[in-house]
Amino acid sequence: MFCHIFLYRIKELLRNPWHLAWNLIFPLGLATAFFFGFGNLIKDDPEQFTTIPVGYVKEADQPFDQVLTALSKDRKDPILKVSEYKDEEEAKKALRDGDTKGYYIQKGEEISVVVGRNGVTSTTLHQILKEYENQKRVLETIGKKHPEKIADAVKTMEKGQEFLRPHVFNKYTSVYMNYFYSLIAMASLYGSWLATTMLSGISANMSERGKRFESAPVYKMTSLFAGILSTVLLQGIFNGILVFYIQYGLHLSFGVPIWQVLMVTTVGGAMGITIGVFIGALVKKRGLQMAFSLAVSMVTSFLSGLMWGEIRQIIESHIPVINRINPAAMLTGCLYNLGNYGLTKNFYRDLYSMVILTVTLLLVSVAILRRRNYDSL
Asked: Is 2.60.120 the CATH number for 50-169?
């Protein structure tokens, strides 16, 4: 019976042109409009990667010297052009004069980085240091547990750039990609419309079909979970089509393996579905369900940067709690951190937040719906 209801729900939703238009065609159209609006700016950013002039203030020789040397070796496109300074004041002056984009400074065994402004260069310089520190911890662990393998590990580290993944340098991403991240978040939250439509088909107070479902000898939770799973599958497919269109149709790379993006957007789609189920459980009128779903989708998408790209960063600086509870900001931040910094703690924070929100809303909605009774059918 579960499989029968599952397939029935998919057929029912696919036959609704409203959902195909808003959940699939509209996001594709908006992505195309974004591309023609500033697509060239996105494509030009990564392809015109230039060597970064950077300063280095050190007290004594460090393994980090080898990393900087490896990244600035003579080749076609060296990543760094390193200039050494005797003290921080001299490095600051070079940064102010525009001779460098930032500088690394060594104080004891600690190394930090100072940059002039945020952007691709800042991401690159920070990530180089982060990867170095990660590798340093790995070497220390190997030295304690398997000292016989330390030589091989050092050789790997001396290769410098080989431990830096291709996306580390933000070479395939642009600040304008944030609009596409927010677009994917909006499309995921549009899944709430699929969920409310699904609920109307199994709720006696919403439609004639719902009355037949409620009267049928089928366990209510079986119908509910089959319907939720069908909508999650459909929204996941819609999100996947949008991701593939952006990556391979518009040739705007996310900067990471496509499966990682699909994993995030699938979780985002499930989050959008459970938001719709929650709205459907609380609101009993079909018109109000649609209104609430639209309001939640558009307000949260605006706050994630869909209409104004910098607003999420502004909120993060002044009222970060809003980004912690905004589902669209969670998904946008997850994609942004994945493309620019990799699998960092901020990425996992947003990913886990989406999972927690999805599970919480699902449990609350199920508790409400399973207790819903009718005086007469």
From this structure: no
